[in-house]
Write a structure and sequence with these properties.
Blueprint (H helix, E strand, L loop, with lengths): L2 H9 L21 H10 L3 E6 L3 E5 L9 E5 L7 H14 L3 H11 L2 E9 L9 H23 L10 H10 L1 E2 L8 E7 L4 H24 L3 H5 L7 H11 L4 E7 L15 E5 L4 H14 L3 E13 L7 E9 L5 E6 L1 H13 L3 E8 L6 E10 L4 H11 L20 H7 L4
Parallel strand pairs: 11-13
Antiparallel strand pairs: 1-2, 2-3, 4-6, 4-7, 5-6, 7-8, 9-10, 9-12, 10-11, 12-13
Helix pairs in contact: 5-6, 5-7, 5-9, 9-10
Length: 422
């Protein structure tokens, strides 16, 4: 151990081991000193000297804690490296500096660091509860839009890929409160979900350029052309949500210090700003992108989960839990008498149906029109049991109307009157 490190440890009463069961702190043995110094510099900590190649000394930014000092080894090969890293981690954990939490979070998980800043009026650095909720809602919508665009390009997704986007957002870690009012920091897993963050960066930069072009020349083609780079109605809507009711908003990203910069991006600062003056362009672009997305011809398989029609012999509405053929969880389809009776039989037998039709944009791609070739998919008993457990089916089907609202009437009478049709 170097004399400087030994003196630092003595000043703190000897080497203090991290509690082995402490889940909130990174394992010092797995912390790369180079990553730690990168994060300290990124968050504004000030280098106060040190021995070249041996260690560096860091102080908290803006003199927030004048007595707080970190010693970080030059690499992990020195005898005292683990001691210094342990001390640095403990010091960060005990620090009241907001960025200390962000640094620890970045050390705990290899993730790309995304920052949202929303300028809203406040008192003493505090903002209204609703304003903070708007920030988180807009950020979540933005991440979901980027996740969808990472899987497929579309001007408007609607309900498509909702499940995938929700799973991605659940993997994102948010820094505990304390990073500041109107601020939010999150970590997207890297390299596992790097495709989402690279898509987000390209889409936001494309959006900024498209807005500038429209405001300068009136041209709107850049929004349409931006779809191939990840721009979508959902992404544009999330930015409008972020900006609306604020005095300005900013989205920034730092690539994971552990994983490094992805190919093609260079080591540049990624920050995009938006202002209330952008709102008219954002709202017009969102509407334009939604209108431009065409309906989709699909051949899907789904389990019948709800049935509704007014009287026997008439056409009815069937809700299907999609098993394959479309990137949505459920769809509604209006069927004529014969096909409706086929759906009733499939439901009673616990079997799915297969059909073709047009998945309509209106309503978020949750409705099929022009259904044809409706048929029951034959399953053996074991397959039907597995399907029933998956869908938690049981008893008679209770249905929703064509606009998505649940119907309170019991559909059993209608099914019974149809007998064993199919």
């Amino acid at each position: 151990m170097t004399p400087v490190a030994r003196a630092a440890v003595r000043a703190r009463g000897g080497r203090t081991l991290l509690p082995p069961a402490e889940p909130d702190l990174p394992d010092p043995g797995r912390v790369d000193p180079a990553v730690l110094t990168t994060l300290l510099a990124r968050h504004g900590w000030i280098r106060k000297g040190g021995a070249q190649g041996r260690y560096s000394r860091w102080a908290a930014p803006d003199d927030l804690e004048p007595d707080t000092s970190l010693l970080v080894p030059g690499d992990r090969h020195f005898d005292d490296s683990l001691d210094l890293i342990e001390e640095a981690v403990l010091t960060l954990a005990r620090s009241g500096v907001p960025s200390a939490r962000a640094i620890l979070a970045a050390l705990l998980v290899p993730g790309d660091e995304i920052h949202w800043r929303r300028e809203v009026p406040g008192v003493g650095g505090a903002v209204a509860w609703g304003a903070e909720a708007e920030l988180r809602s807009a950020a979540a919508a933005m991440l979901a839009a980027a996740a969808k665009a990472g899987q497929a390009r579309a001007a408007y997704f609607g309900a498509r890929l909702d499940a995938y986007a929700a799973e991605y957002v659940d993997r994102v870690l948010v820094v505990a409160p304390g990073t500041g009012a109107g601020l939010l920091t999150a970590y997207s897993p890297a390299p596992a979900d790097r495709l989402t963050t690279t898509t987000l960066v390209r889409a936001l930069e494309t959006l900024r350029d498209a807005i500038d072009l429209q405001r300068a020349t009136g041209q709107t083609d850049a929004f349409d052309n931006g779809v191939r780079l990840g721009l979508s109605r959902e992404l544009v809507g999330s930015v409008a949500h972020l900006v609306r009711g604020s005095e300005g908003a900013q989205v920034g990203l730092h690539w994971s210090a552990q994983v490094g910069v992805p190919h093609g991006f260079g080591n540049r600062r990624l920050v995009v700003d938006f202002s209330p003056g952008d709102l008219p362009a954002l709202e017009a672009a969102a509407a334009r992108l939604e209108r431009s997305e065409p309906a989709v011809d699909v051949a899907l398989t789904g389990a019948v989960v709800r049935l509704k029609r007014a009287v026997p012999g008439a056409e009815g509405v069937v809700r299907l839990r999609v098993l394959s053929g479309a990137d949505v969880e459920e769809v509604r389809v209006r069927l004529g008498d014969r096909d409706y009776r086929t759906a009733v039989t499939a439901h009673l037998e616990g079997a799915p149906v297969r059909l073709r039709g047009l998945l309509e944009r209106k309503g978020g791609f949750r409705k099929i029109t022009g259904a044809r070739d409706v048929a029951i998919v034959e399953l053996d008993e074991a397959e039907r049991d597995r399907l029933a457990k998956t869908l938690r089916l049981g008893g008679a089907a209770e249905d929703g109307s064509d606009d998505g609202a649940d119907d309170s009437s019991d559909e059993g009478t209608d099914d019974s009157s149809d007998g064993d049709a199919g």
